[in-house]
Write a structure and sequence with these properties.
6 copies of one chain form a homohexamer.
Chain A: E1 2-7, H1 9-12, H2 23-34, E2 38-43, H3 46-58, H4 63-85, H5 97-104, E3 110-112, H6 121-131, E4 136-141, E5 162-164, H7 165-174, H8 187-196, E6 199-204, H9 209-215, E7 222-225
Parallel strand pairs in A: 1-2, 1-4, 2-3, 4-6, 5-7
Antiparallel strand pairs in A: 6-7
Helix pairs in contact in A: 2-4, 2-9, 3-4, 6-8
Chain lengths: ~230, ~230, ~230, ~230, ~230, ~230
Amino acid sequence: MKITIKLSGHILFPAMDTLPQIKDYATVIRELVKKGDHVSVVVGGGAPARYYIQLARREGADEATCDHIGITIANLNAKIFSQALGDVACPFVPMDFDELEKAKVSGKVIVMGGLQPGQSTNAVACILAEKMRSELLINTTTVDGVYSSDPKRDQDARRLETVTVGELSKILASMGVKAGEYALLDPVALRIIQRSRITTKIIDGRDPLNILRACTGEKIGTTIIS
Amino acid sequence: MKITIKLSGHILFPAMDTLPQIKDYATVIRELVKKGDHVSVVVGGGAPARYYIQLARREGADEATCDHIGITIANLNAKIFSQALGDVACPFVPMDFDELEKAKVSGKVIVMGGLQPGQSTNAVACILAEKMRSELLINTTTVDGVYSSDPKRDQDARRLETVTVGELSKILASMGVKAGEYALLDPVALRIIQRSRITTKIIDGRDPLNILRACTGEKIGTTIIS
Amino acid sequence: MKITIKLSGHILFPAMDTLPQIKDYATVIRELVKKGDHVSVVVGGGAPARYYIQLARREGADEATCDHIGITIANLNAKIFSQALGDVACPFVPMDFDELEKAKVSGKVIVMGGLQPGQSTNAVACILAEKMRSELLINTTTVDGVYSSDPKRDQDARRLETVTVGELSKILASMGVKAGEYALLDPVALRIIQRSRITTKIIDGRDPLNILRACTGEKIGTTIIS
Amino acid sequence: MKITIKLSGHILFPAMDTLPQIKDYATVIRELVKKGDHVSVVVGGGAPARYYIQLARREGADEATCDHIGITIANLNAKIFSQALGDVACPFVPMDFDELEKAKVSGKVIVMGGLQPGQSTNAVACILAEKMRSELLINTTTVDGVYSSDPKRDQDARRLETVTVGELSKILASMGVKAGEYALLDPVALRIIQRSRITTKIIDGRDPLNILRACTGEKIGTTIIS
Amino acid sequence: MKITIKLSGHILFPAMDTLPQIKDYATVIRELVKKGDHVSVVVGGGAPARYYIQLARREGADEATCDHIGITIANLNAKIFSQALGDVACPFVPMDFDELEKAKVSGKVIVMGGLQPGQSTNAVACILAEKMRSELLINTTTVDGVYSSDPKRDQDARRLETVTVGELSKILASMGVKAGEYALLDPVALRIIQRSRITTKIIDGRDPLNILRACTGEKIGTTIIS
Amino acid sequence: MKITIKLSGHILFPAMDTLPQIKDYATVIRELVKKGDHVSVVVGGGAPARYYIQLARREGADEATCDHIGITIANLNAKIFSQALGDVACPFVPMDFDELEKAKVSGKVIVMGGLQPGQSTNAVACILAEKMRSELLINTTTVDGVYSSDPKRDQDARRLETVTVGELSKILASMGVKAGEYALLDPVALRIIQRSRITTKIIDGRDPLNILRACTGEKIGTTIIS
């Protein structure tokens, strides 16, 4: 199966004071490859990106440049993760769409970070899924799926097993999420999922084994149906 | 004043059977430059982009690649427009953020098309406005501004002179515009306008002189206040 | 066998008002690949290139820039054609000689457009044939071969089965073709065919099956012997 | 005046056993700049290019790769010459058309070598002249101009003060010069001179002062009229 | 005066838990520019580079890749510093020698990080000094100069006002500094200082004003004479 | 076995007046490949590099630019050598670290020249050895190994079969070799050999068969133990 996996920068690179633990995530990806899956990965920026963006902003950088700096760190995180993958990974991290096409020649696990300012790494994961014609997109988060309403405020909130893109948009809107600030999946990501009918699973990525579970069809998290 | 102008591909390149009339738009830009404004321009893909995207899709291209092909045409349109501008234009069309930084060295009018898949040329205009620290962003459309409700359905719909980003989001949502399909301004664009507090004017771009009017402070179209 | 095929832009992209039919050409290339041939392809600019060049010239572009714009379109056509080829095609269109060397790593069908101003896509096909060490170069045109004299003026004109580069030069000169304006094959192309002794067939490319016929040795068109 | 000058590799880099004398040529260019002319320069490959091409061919390189190797040397010669020019030269040698557009930003003397296989440095000089909109193209050779017939065979051969592109083509053809082997100016160069109506002077470049003479309108060499 | 300044990564980016204070260093550079000096800057990798290198190494990266990762961070630090410089800085950070030549076109303060694996940012500063033809190279460290012997072990150690490259090599060797591990200046840096006779000052960079003092000829730190 | 081989430019390209004999070296590399070794190669600049550097320096180039020009020639020599290798070679010469990662995708013999100013091709060979995780690095020279002291001055000087990096540093220092001028292996190279524990053999490369001997474990030259 063709699978694209978004590894949350917040999970993989949570803080600056200790070195992150990414080995188990690499092990999971290698296992999928061994099983015959055709995997591609996007890694977010996490704490180091926040550190540099905060610094750049304080020194007077415009927001587009701040985005660009965050992308540089996401690409570096991708580089680190591809090292952890070892020989199954494409030896370079494609940094634009032309390089992505060149990376496809390798036939190996492509690991990417970001592309251009104004675009979240979630959106990049969707673009990568399109380009690789992935049937499954797994988005790792720090929650265990999408809820019918905000669980922090509403006792009756329940985790949804499946949700359509339309329903998800409404839920996010009802929670008062502002345009372009959806933590889970931004509107660009939703639009791409819709247009290319990519089955997308939102899972709790804090346990790396959840990725394996989601790929083998175990009922976990929330599945977005397009 | 620092101004970024989004020239609609639909207006400048409306059809494939006749050569487009872009001279008057170039004249307006040159006039602004002569007045001392620091102008940058984004040109959309228009009919040629639709032609190639339709063709690519029919030949089996994935949607991300279709986007990329549309971007190539938008960049080509930008190249054509920079020729029409002549000596006041930066001699090359920056195709990514790194090249944009190099283009700034020229001190001339930077003309861009698109950047990466998943991103509208409206979003690119916002990113360019951020990078150039523009105080004013002019978005040319085929309507004369933002309406309180859909004028095709609601007789009481009236054009708004000003609107906040929040109000605009609500209006678009109430019109049933789906996530990522806002014709006027997509959510990425709205988020950037918000975060960098760029005064943005939605004007009818079919008359090139409206651009001049908007730049000189004439009351025209709708102004988005962040 | 190693074969380079020049697909005429005029044949593949004849007009702007309808989407071109390129599927049958892609089918022929895939068939050759299935048979074990090592194929590379150059696609011309056709009607969209003429559209943009005409536009650029009207807006004051110099002729070298016009050429460059035509090359951009030829590259885009090559991109579209590689999409139609699907998995047998190299995932990217090499845009200069360095990229061509990188494309060779893929071991797949390389599809190119143009290279640099001043160079016809016929010349690019010859350079590609040299680089790939092709034994056969097929040049598709809208005529069924080379004639002993201009068939429009001379009733006794007959199609030649074979012709040497020297004879062809004389025929073209006798027809009053000016330097650098040979529709069929320009002088650069002729020089390359000569220096690398590439067997070249001029065939009527309006029927895609003629390409197959020429590759399997059927007597068709005119063969240039170096 | 806008002037493009082709400096012959054979004249500037005549042999491998002694270091070439290029200072006087640099002095001439600097003098033109001081006078207010807008100068651009193309330098050929000369003896070092022949050395490396001969070597590459012996080691089995295809002819397109041999061309590419010759271009690398021409670019290196251009780099050396730009060092000799000092501060009046653009600090980098543009190696493709995109870089040429970036070099224009510098406003300084652009020095180029070659572009792509299949293209002589004479053709590159014509493309550069087009791009820079030069009114005058000076081509340095080891003869003092174009003759009515081959002076080695015909006692009545006389140097022509002016010649049209059409006449020049005929003269070259009558001398039995084969397609693509014109030492003086190849057909691509002739076509460009024609299409962009660039006044071109063929002069004896062995005396660097002849360049100054040609630029100041002194009657020297042969002028090609388009 | 032409001055190249190496800003120590250890000083500018000392730790990961707090945002660094780089404003005062930017102020000093801007002051030099205002005085008419032609300044270029190299910024080291500091704590973030160590963080990422340590991480890469733990994930199995080879040492050359670790170097490359450190260079990416040094380039990012340079980007941040150029933001702090504002308009006096070249808008992009040159990442290789070709880009450095393009950056020279800007005429602004060039800020660089690293170049290629195996090369310290000290060596990069020396190369930049050569390329910019700087008369003075200032190397900021956490000591107040070069000592006649190791001050930690030898009570009689005294700070040298001047030292030759040869003497410095001997002192470093006598301290048991191993090949390629000179903290102060590595052998590549020493060789470049020697070959291009660049006056080099080793100063305590913890006080940004020391940079101003060194530039105005105040007796501070140790001057290496070549 | 993974082996990196540094081919001396002085041996392969000894002079400008005759074409070099490199076939036998290519034969040796192909033989190693046939045996199953995973080989990568660095080629030095030799006489052509010295020619161009001397010329550049005379025309006023700074030393960093001179280095860069030497690197261009080393890359060209690498290109020539890869032609001699034929199909076992990666079709392009990686010119920076990013391209090196792309070249790894080919799985073929990577042939490199230089990287950036300030770095010897010996250092590049060490970096390549690190990147390819080579177990053996062979450095061809014009001497038959490392001597205990300078054999030209000391009758008792004897060739060492093995030497540690530390001992080698001391020997070189005792011979009065100045910082950064070690002909055999510069300090950067020594540091990399040390840090990555690459077994390195210094052999007389004038006989190409010595390379085969060194690879098959024959006692030849001097082995540096880290």
